[in-house]
Amino acid sequence: MLVTSEALPLAKTGGLGDAVSGLARALRDAHVDATVFMPAYESAMDAACDLEEVAELPGLAGGDATVWAGWVADTEIPVLLLRNDRLYVRPGNPYLDANGKEFPDNGIRFAALAQAAKRISVGETPIRVPHVVHAHDWHAGLTPLYLHAAGVKRPKTVLTIHNLAFQGNFPLHLADELGIPPAYRGSEGAEFWGHLNFMKAGLRYADRLTTVSATYAREILTPEFGHGLDGVLRERAHELHAIPNGIDTEVWDPSTDPFLPEHFSALDMRGKVRNKLEMQQAFGLPTDPEAPLLAMGSRLTSQKMADLAVEVFPRLLAAHPRLQIAVLGCGERAIEEALRAVAERYPRNLGVHIGYDERRGHLLHAGADMLLHGSRFEPFGLTPLYSMLYGTVPIASRVGGLADSIVGLSPEPGAEVGSATGILFDGDTPDDMQKAVERALDVFAQPQKWSALQKNGMTTHFGWEASAAQYVELYRMLAPVAPVGAPMVARRPETASIPAATAVRKRA
Ligand code: ADP
Ligand code: GLC
After folding, report:
1. What's the CA angle centered on 389, arms 211 and 7, to 5 degrees?
2. How far apart are CA 34 and CA 36, in angstroms?
3. Does the beta carbon of 212 lie inside 6 Å of ligand 2?
4. Most buried of the four, 224, 235, 314, 474, by CB within 10 Å?
5. What is the tens place of the pLDDT at every residue in 38-86?
6. From the CB of residue 286, how many other CB atoms can be counted at a distance below 10 Å?
């Protein structure tokens, strides 16, 4: 059972939603009955089908709830949704209200998810118990604690860290209301600087920990990247596994992507230019197939160096009058405002779209020449890989998953492209970022080299199979007895044979 707050297309605010659904699909392809368990947000109820109530859970944090079983529409991915409309049906996204403010009761909302996961997992409902409970990020972080505290025969737990910067800190006095036993409230438990820390609860009590790239797995053991939890992680370093994410190539493939005006592939790039022209229009830029077009598409936060980009864009545009930049994102209000202000100064060169827009996201990766993805830290970093598959060369920081998945072009002047797939840079000063973009512009002016970089990226294999196999091995180690009994959500005979590829196209 995958316990999560996000899974595409039920709910997504970032890479977590992509990663969990990609994993669920890959596990299914590997004949593992992985069931996604998450809150019944309105979007989740809409995107699931054949829903039926399968359990009542009275007395959870935040009130009585029910569990609904169904399927991600047109796929074979089974879901269990935790329904308490008072907690989960609200305007905004899974964490923030319509004004971008955190819901004040997020501690209760996600404790309820973990309590429900625990009750299902110890057989307190009619739902078949899972063999392994796999919690994702802080939202599910209390799950291992509750199961550890249950003191009964229980399934083993895994916690995957998708982003250690988000930890879910809540007032310690909530511990009573959330049913956290006194023995679990101290600094040896879930306490962190006078708060209850849901991520720390998961790090302490999960049977195994994983994170989403090898470099990030090493980085988070250091104070620089540990966000205060590196000490806790060092104690468990021998139980921390690095399993990189894959890419859901059913969703991200330029030769089939239903969001694109024209398809293309590494063998036939002719369609890419039409995407570029459409993207220029969509971002209010003059249509020009030759102008270098740089994209930035991400959360506009300091993790993603969006603050630095605000400083660097005017410098770049002053020095390179033909350069065009398109930005898609949302995040910190001050950064959004600052980007809009730069766009007012350079209306013909900088197009900014503030908001979250899946279709535009796909067009951005397809239409641009290069993607700027600076990161102060990056657990995995799906976005630059999407861009690579779409022939858009990433310019990215040499940290975390980016250092593992992008082969950086040698900085030596005149260096051969070889196996390079992008430009990697170190540091986080405006100069570091500016020089990296200028290196890319230099190669862009050499069409043969540029097309070699594009081809290398487009032909790299980032599928989920190998990573899913590593998770399966971990699950086997934790639950060595072969699975028996019915799946958690009863199989629907009439859809059981729909291949995933057909399913995704149907959805589109
Ligand atoms: P993170 O999870 O840290 O935000 P990733 O690069 O791993 O970073 O994943 C981000 C995901 O969210 C990608 O699928 C990306 O396309 C998507 N995304 C981010 N911001 C937006 C946006 N404003 N509109 C559409 N998609 C977005
Ligand atoms: C997080 C990370 C990102 C990663 C994603 C999926 O949001 O910031 O680097 O790709 O989770 O694991």
Report:
1. 45
2. 7
3. yes
4. 474
5. 999 999 999 999 999 999 999 999 999 999 999 998 888 999 999 999 9
6. 10
Q: State how far the Cα of 34 lies from the Cα of 130, in Å rounded to an integer.
A: 9
Preceding omega of 9 cis (within 30 degrees of 0): yes
pLDDT, mean over the chain: 94
pLDDT in tens, 261-303: 999 999 999 999 999 999 999 999 999 999 999 999 999 999 9
Is there an atom of ligand 1 within 6 Å of 453 CB? no
Q: Is the CB of 259 under 6 A from ligand 1?
A: no
| Residue keyed to tokens 């297309």 | 9
Residues 6+ apart with CB under 8 A from 433: 305, 308, 309, 312, 372, 374, 425
Is the CB of 245 inside a 6 Å radius of any atom of ligand 2? yes
Report the distance separating Cα 54 and Cα 68, nearest Å.
Answer: 6
Please state which architecture CATH assigns to domain 2-248+463-502.
3-Layer(aba) Sandwich (3.40)
Classify residue 308 by its DSSP letter: H
Residue 382 Cβ inside 6 Å of ligand 1? The answer reads yes
- Of 93, 212, 464, 467, the residue with max ligand 2 atoms within 8 A of its CB, to mutate for a pocket test, comes to 212
pLDDT at 505: 34
When computed from its CA atoms, the radius of gyration of the chain, rounded to whole angstroms, is: 23
- The residues of the chain that CATH labels 3.40.50.2000 are 2-248+463-502, 270-458
Which residue did the predictor score with more confidence, 367 or 486? 367
Q: Which two tokens stand for residue 51?
A: 């829903």
Residue 507 has pLDDT above 90, yes or no: no
Contact by Cβ (8 Å): 80, 72: no
**pLDDT over 60 at 496, yes or no:** no
| pLDDT of res. 146 | 98
Q: Outline where DSSP puts E strands in 220-369.
A: 240-242, 293-300, 324-331, 350-354
Residues 151-168: b if buried by 16+ CB within 10 A, e if exposed:
eeebbbbbbbbbbbebbb
CATH number of the structural domain 270-458: 3.40.50.2000
Atom 4, ligand 2: which residue's CA is nearest?
380
User: How many CA atoms are closer than 13 Å to the CA of 486, on its beta-carbon side?
Assistant: 9
For residue 19, which atom of ligand 1 is closest to its CA? 7
Dist. CA 22 → ligand 2 center (Å): 13
pLDDT bucket at 4, cuts 50 / 70 / 90: very high
pLDDT per position as a tens digit, 422-448: 999 999 999 999 999 999 999 999 999
Instruction: Provide the pLDDT for residue 497.
Output: 39
Size of the chain, expressed as the number of residues it contains: 508
Tell me the sheet residues that pair with 451. none
